[in-house]
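Q: Make up one entry.
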Amino acid sequence: MRIAYLSIGGHIHTERWLRYFARKGHDVHLLTVQPAPIEGVTIHDIRTGISVKPLHYAVALGKVRRILRQIRPDLLHTHFLTGYGYWGAYSRFHPFIMTVWGDDVYTTPHESFLKGRLARTALRCADLITGDSEDILEHVVAMGGDADKCRVVQWGVDLDRFQPEAPTAVREKLGIPSASPLVISIRSFTQAYYNIDTIVRSIPAVLRERPATHFIIAGNEGDDTELRQLADELGIGPNAHFVGRIPHEELPAYLATSDVFLSVPSVDATPVSLLEAMACGTAVVISDLASGLEWVTHEENGLVVEAANRVELEDAVLRLIDAPEMRLSFARIGVEMVREKADHQAHMAGMEKLYLELVSGKEG
């Protein structure tokens, strides 16, 4: 098949998805305003250089239509409802698949009447809609998406790499003693709703009780300068390791050597990093969002706290630090669950089947 995608370039989610289909021998094209090379993928730059948003979207739409006429794909798959989803819908190309990510459903369409109308139009145009949780698809349906066209498809975990090992290279690199409890957060710095500041503010209370504890604060996107300054103000510098973006190929080592993984946003779909942490046997603390609760049951395979509740977070971290048997129990259940339900290869194979059904006219 020749598959055209509209998606965020230079993003690990886009890269992993497209690389799978390129390696399967499909002719893969990416149309994007954030061009970055992906092995085996033809990149089409749809940037306009126009700062006025309405005009930018209109000119870029013209580029999208021209490129689609030139490459004549078998299907168009748009990742992200807002922005790229608009271009996908107004390209009028079919079959048209939409994959929603998170705040493109939970927040952006509700910021204005126009954004909501554009999002609803894009959803109605889609021949198939995928998302990584039942919850996000319920929100899609509430906005007018057709429930019969919705499917849960995970980004998935590379189970060959994300395994419950215990490498020491990360601790040695950062100067963290092998016996010190280690807590990790790898959520993005781009949005306040990820509550990374809450995590940083929780560290002093943890250190008062367990001063040997160390924290790794990483993020694939955004600037952590303000968080570093906050850490300095709180006097936690020696125990708080800000490492910026961790290359995806190095991430298993960071997760497997950590005792506790934190993900406490106020808005989110299913975090891939959560599933990767579970696959590595890391005990998890998550906020009480519906998508996360599809994977974590409080006190069964993780601990659940109220989003942005610093006191609950402090208590949960201390509880896991002091309960190695609980961490091991959570790890066993988490590893089994992810291996059963979140295998990247299995979900992409399922997506390929959906592609073939659409192209042959069996779906929609």
